[in-house]
Every structure is written in C-alpha cells, then in structure tokens.
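User: Hi! Is it possible to get a structure for several chains at once, not just one? Here's what I have:
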Amino acid sequence: MGDLVANLSLGFGAAVTPGNLMFCFLGTLLGTLVGVLPGLGPITTIALLMPFAFSLEPVTALIMLAGVFYGSQYGGSTSAILTNIPGESASVITCLDGHPMARQGRAGAALAVAAWGSFIAGTVATLLIAVAAPLMAAVALAMTSVEYCALMLFGLVATVVLASGSVLNAICMIMVGLLLGLVGTDVNSGTQRYVFGVPLLADGLDFVALATGLFGITEVIQTMIAARSPAAERTGEVKSVGLTGEEWRRSWKAILRGTGLGSLLGILPGSGGTIASFASYALEKRVSKRPEEFGKGAIEGVAAPEAANNAGSQTSFVPLLTLGIPTNATMAVLSGAMIVHGIQPGPKVISEQPTLFWGLICSMWIGNFMLLLINLPLAKLWARGMEIPQRILAPAIVSICCVGVYAVTNSFAALAIMAGFGVVGFVLRRLDCEPAPLVLGFVLGPLLEENFRRAMMVAKGDLGVFVSRPISLALLIATALVLLSLSLPLVRRERSLLKECEA
Amino acid sequence: MRTTIPRLSREFVLAGLLVSFGLAAAWFAKDYPMGNLRDMGPGYLPFHLGLLIAAMGVLVAAMSLNRTGDARAQPRAEESAAQENGDTPLRAVLAAPVAVLLFGFAVERLGLVVAILLATGTMGLAWPQARRREAVTVAVVLAVAITLLFPVLLRVPLPIWPSP
Amino acid sequence: MQRRQLLKGMAGAALGSAFGMPAFAQSGAWPTKPVKVVNPYTPGGTTEVIVRLMAERLDKAFGQPFVMDYRPGAGGSVGSGYVATQPADGHTILISNTGPLAVGPSLFPNLNYDVTKSFSYITLFGGAPILLAVKADSPIKTLADYVAATKVAPDAVTYGSSGIGSVGHLAGVLFMQKAGVTFKHVPYKGAPEAQQGVLSGEITALWDTIGAHAAQIRAGALRPLAISGPDRLSVFPNIPTIKELGYPDVVATNWFLFAGPAGLSNTVAGKINDVCQTAMKEAVVQERFSGIGLAPLGNMSSAEIAKFVALEAERWAPVVKASGAKPA
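Assistant: Yes, the chains can be modeled jointly so their relative placement is included. Here is the combined structure:
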C-alpha cells in the first residue's frame, strides 16, 4: 500500500508540471480532432508527431503521444454516435446504440455517458495498473496461440448475443467476416489471396473503407429511404444535452462491468480491446431487464463498451512497459518513441525508469480528466449539430467520408470498396443480417488464422490441445454456455411470435 | 421500381448469397497451397471456411422451410416503417454509392472542388423531394468548406483544381 | 499558434505520405513530402531500432518526417517486394536484411523482386549474429543440452523465428544439417512475437537476430545458449559462438541495409547515406548499435553493397538448397 502511494505520488509529481499538463492537453485535443474525422487515425498522427516529440523530454513526449491515442479513441466514439461511422474497430459497438440515441435527440446523453464512462474506466484502470502491473504482465505471458484461439472464438460467439436478429444469421455474418479478413497477403508464405490484381487488396481490405461503407454509407441510404415519408425529415429535435438521473442509474453498473472486462482483455496482444468492447455489450444485453431496447438506443449499450474500450486502452500499455510487447499498432509506434529516447521497452522499464513509467500511468488519468473537460461542453455543441436537416447532413457525411478515405489510401479502389460495402450493408440489413458480427469477424480473421495455424503446428494437428490446456478449456466452456443460453430466448421468441399470430 | 421481399423468400435470398459467396471463395482458394491440419498452407482455412459458409447457406434455407409460413411471413415489430412497406427505391439505394464513385473518378483529374460538387450534387438532387436551389447551395458551401478544411487549413496535399 | 503548426504539420505529413502533387514530383527537389521507410517486420525488431535512430537524424537533415510503414510477412520478403514496385522518387525506402535479400531468392519460387535488379542500395549498417536462446527456467542450459534434447524427442523440440525465410529460420536449418539433428520450425510475424512464444512456453527455443532480445537477456528472462557470429560480441562476452562449440560451419550474420527501388537517383541515395554515415560515427549511435549486437561492416558505396548482396545471395543459395527448407 505504501508502495502504491509512493509510486502514484512519484507519477503525479512527474506528470503535473505546467509543460507536461500542456502537452497532455494538446495530445488529447489533437487526438479528439483526428478521431472525429474519418481516415486519419492515432497511428498516423503519432507517427507524424514523432519528429516533434524528439525535441521533448521522454516523459513529456510519451504523455503527449499517449494523449493522442486515447483522445482519438474518444473522438472515434463521437463520430460513431453522431454519424454512425466507426473510425476503428472498437467503436463499431458504440454505433449500435449511440447512433439511435442521437437520432432520438439524445446525442448529448450518449456523448456524456461515453465521456463519463471513459473517465471512470480510466480511473479504475490507472489504479489497477498501479497495483497489479506485474501480475497483469504475467497473465499476458501465460497466453499461447491455443489460448488466443479460444479467446477469439469466445469473443466471436459473444457477438452473436448482440445481434437483435436471428442467431443463425449472426453466425453466418461472423464467418463471412472471417473470410473477408483473409483477403490479402498470407503472413507465413507471402501468397496473395483474393487479390485479383488490385494492389490495394494485397494489404487486405481496408478497415476504414469497409466499416465506413457498412455503417456510414448504409446509414445514409437508410436515411434517404426513410426521408421519403415527410414525417421522418424532422430528426433533429434535441431532447437532452446531459444525463438524467434515470440514465445515470442505468449506466453506472454497466460502466463498472465494462471497465472490468476491458482492463482484463486490454492486456492481451492483438485485439483485446475490440473483443472487450464487443463482449461487454453482449454482457449488458444478457443482464439487462430490457434487452429489447438494445440496438434502439439503450444507454447501457454505449456506457459499457466505451468503458471497456477505454480501460483496455489503458491496460494495453502494461505489456509494452513490462514485457516490451506492443499489443496493438499504436503501442508499437509508442515503443518506437521510447527506443528513440534510448529506452528499450521491456522488463526493466519500471525499475530503471520509475519516473517515466509512473508519470505516464498518472498522465493517463489526467488525460482522461482533460477529455472530460474538453468533451462535456463539446457534447452539447455536437448534439445541437444533430438539428441540421438530414438532406444537408447526408451529403456532408458522404463527402467527408470520401475525402478521409481517399486522403489516407490515395486509391480509387478504397472508395469503390466503401461504396460497394455501403450497398452490401443495405442488402444485409434487408435480409435481417447485422454488420457488427461481420466486422468483428473481419478484424479477428487474420489473427485467428495466424494463431490457429501456429497452435496446430505446435500440437501436430491435434485439436485436443484446446481442451487439455486449462485457460483454453475454461474459455471454451464459457463459449458453449453462451451458445446454450442463446438457444433459450430464441425458442421463447419464436413462441411469442406464434402466439401473436394466432391471436 | 418497387420490390417487395416477404420474409420467407428473404431467407432464400440470403441462403443463395451465402452459397454462392462460399463456393466462390472455396473455388479461388483451391489453387492456393493447401497443406494439412499439421501444417496449414495459405489455402487451407479460406477453402474450408468457404465450404462452411456454403453449408450454412443450405442450413439457412432448410431452417426457413422448416418453419411455419404463417409466423415467418409476419414482419417483426423492430423493422422500420420503410421495411414494413417493403419497397426499395433504387434511386435512394444507389445515390450515395454513386456519389462516392463519382468523387473517386473526379478527384484525381478534376480536383477536389469538382469532386465534392459532383458527390454532394448527386446526393442533393437524388434526395426525395429534392429542392434544387438548396441542393446546389449545399454543394457549393460544402465544396468550399471541405477545401478550406483539408487542403488549405490542414495542408492535405489533395489536388484542388483540375490538373492540366 | 503552436497548435496550428502542429496540426498543419501533422495532417500535411499524414496525407502527404500517401501521395504527392504532380507539380512537386517534376521539380527534382527532394524530399518534397514525408519519406516512407518500409519496415518488412513487425515493430520491436532490430530494424525498428536502426530506423528510429536514423529517422531522427534524417528528419532534421531534410526537414521532412521519415515515417515508418510496417509491412511484415514471409520473413520480410513481402515488404521488400512492395518497395521494389514503388516509384524511385526517393519518397519510399526500405530497411531490409539478409533474409529477404540473400535467403529469400533461393527459398521462395516466385518473388516479385530480383536483388540484383530491383533495388538501389543506399547504406549498409552492419551485421548482427543470430541468437539461440531458451526460457530462463528451461532444463536446457547449454548448446550440448539442446542437441541432446533434440536427440531424445525431436518432435517435441520446436524453435521460433521472425518468419519463413528469415535468417533465424535458416540458421536453425543450417544447424540441424551440420549437427545432424532435427527440430521443428514455427514461424512468427516478427521478433517480439517469437520472443513471447518462447517466454510463454509455446516453443522450446528461439533462433532470431539478437537485437530485439538483448533486453530480455539482460533482464534474465531469456537464457542465451549461443550466437551464430564468427566471434563473440563485446556486449555479451559470456555468450559462446556456435562455431567455437564445435560447429565451425554454422556461421550466419544478419546484415541490415537501406535500399530504394531501382533507379533511385545517386544524389538522393548519397544524401541519405551521408547522414547515416555521420550518424554512425556518433557515440550514442555506436553505443546503441553495439547494444543490439550490430557490428559495422564498413562504409560501402551503392555498387559495393550491390556486389556484397549478390555474393551473400550466392553464398546462401546452396545452404538453402541443401537444407531442404521449404517456403510453406
């Protein structure tokens, strides 16, 4: 305990200098801005701020760059809520209820709960890291390909819960997503798959183009169809710009559960944070007394995944700082920033650079606080933006998506992918299929393949390893339970449907 | 252009799409080195996943046949008003994708301003009960605003005007 | 004010790296936009350290950011092949090594590049040995233990590398051939992933370029058994060479270099090389390089590096053939 206080005070001592506070603020603000615009992500931004960061003290540089990272995650939620465009995989889930909330004039509440959820999650995760960083590192180290496969399987099956339509359709969408994720160059052999001579496809389908199409463009299409009946034109009535007491009561438990899941899964390399946001949404829907509201503007459906995502972004620093393993692309770039400053990320960072380690951890909390300061007033402003009529908003959204995607890829193919997936998303919705499971499958596809191949290689093709290793077995049992629990309400719904028809 | 999709045939459409997508994926994957479970080549997973997706398509069709037509034909409460009507105006569906493609064709040769005018103009004119003057105004305002935001203020090196 | 500049620089650079305006391309000035440094491995490897150290100095010298672009796959040949197809305007360069340039050509049947024709070489940074290491609590304590373990249960002994066709992969194959033992190769995407594989107990050992693992050796998490260099390293004087342990033919060095697509102007290559050569004379850089086991191989001209690469490729060809290593 004494250690904790000493560590945190060392950290706050390092982070709370006027210069560091200013760069923390700049980083989070810049991050929020690039997060809101489609295309530009935290990775590009951090990579490009690096030359500037060279001129700063290592701790200041890292504080600023880390600020860009979680600022952009928050910005991504903003665009997900307001325009239904997920800037990165973790905010796909925020679209599901955040955007319906905005459509109902509750954008202010959705944005506020996202800000508060992130802040609370950030606070808890910071404390957790301060207490248990070495333990968390040990968990990350115990995972082999077998456990990763089981975890991803669990995450994928959990996604089925969040689908409001048919379970079977959701499973089909996951598989289609997995296959789309395999497009591109095979990491092991360098073989190009499903590339058809398009250079852009050699890198795989572009996530931003795919997600912007499936969510953003599809949404515009739906809006346009709805706009044909005159009543739908008036969308913009802003009902609230903040959280009501009732909304708070519904959100706080969701925030805490999301934080727990996010903190745990965030330490895992690959897509821990993404799986966490999907799984926490699924969990809320299972425990809620009002599961039927999910997908139509349930505030828990924004609170939980936002908390999970943010807690996950905090804890994803742990493997980098304790093991030298970057868990995602942003961490990789940050690890580069440390290398430049002569700090080799790895087991010795805590003991040899305590000021840097604890300063960075504490600055995350400060950064989250700043995000709250920046975004609560902004939320009101954004919410007012929803009053703009759709016939003006829709063309604006389409052109900003075009500019964003084209600017980053410089490729007509990426725009064609975006347009194509816009139509695909529309058709899928007409066929009662939801795009979210497809997107998770897409994100996990390459990771699942890589780990499954390796697991089978090491186990000499013996599928039994998945049940002979305890963590993997536990995850598989959890997966089976989820599948089992899914089949029950399905039966119930079918019955009630039948009854309605008979009546 | 009005197409009404009742629920039963909706599942057949999905089944058909899944079977063709899955088989196509497997067809292309069969030429990639296959390997075996102990040592999977780049074709192993795509090939089997493709077949699995096709099988799922068959399952979707079978399940829908297995159900009573009555219950299935009822649109579910959560479907939107437009979907209940079940009619799909082609113009509304294609306006946004066409706008994106027009932007793509135009931006390289004609520059950002023309590209945005084309994209927003398409959207504005295709909008139900389009107000032409407003659509043109919106297009011009957006073209100016986005040009000011990206290439001018943020210095994004996009070609603004047509290149000679 | 500061924020405006930041924003401008950031976004301009971000998007500038993706494409340039034709007007700029014709003027002949370089660099007119950020320079993309393609790293054909995952973050955290030796290439990362080299590029980060050089990029810092190149940024300052030329006033444009040198931005890293990771394109891992097939032991580095995916990213290397990518650069071969890019315009030779000096805005895309490659950090590569022995794997894609000397091993890959004999290993992969249809590479989309030819090391003698597809690249203009810029700077040779030096060479580092391959490390053979196990987890600190492994029962294997020496190279002899390792050989004994493979003889007892060849099926149960596995090794990880930075990918098929990486020098680590081939060094392992070379050792199997010369020592008459067998163990199983498990490819990873890059050095940190392979390292986690050995630390989590997924694989028995690691055959990989030493640089990325130096920190874990010092921290005591990895137990080094031997290195593949001709001599011991000054920073790790206690790690024996495989050569001195009775396998004189098992010597492998992973050298690192900057290259551009073929046709890169000599002026641009020269400018980059000058900055790099000056950097390599700095005490800080020398210390960091030797810390990751990288020893200088001399200041070679572009043509000399090309000759060196061709020779190395020739030297590796029979090893790859004889080893029976397969691409998948």
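The first strand of chain A starts at residue 184 and ends at 185. The longest helix of chain A spans residues 107-142.

User: Great, thank you!
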